[in-house]
Amino acid sequence: MKAAVVHGPGDLRIDTLPDPEPGAGEVLVAMEWGGICGSDLAYWRHGASGTAVLEHPLVLGHEVAGRVAGVGPGVSVEVGLPVTVHPAEPVGDTTLPERIAGRTNLLPRVRYFGSAALHPHTDGGFSELRVVRAGQLRPLPEGVSTRQGALAEPLAVAMHAVHRAGAVSGRTVLVNGAGPIGCLLVAAAKFAGAATVIVADLAPSALAIARRLGADHVVDLGSGDALPDDVELVFEASGAPGALGGVLHATARGGTLVQVGNLPGKPATAVLGDLITREITWVGSYRFVDEITDAVRALGEGLDVSPLITHTFDLDRAGEALAVAADRTSGSGKVLLRLGEERR
Question: Which part of the chain is the Alcohol dehydrogenase-like C-terminal domain (predicted)?
Answer without folding.
Answer: 180-297
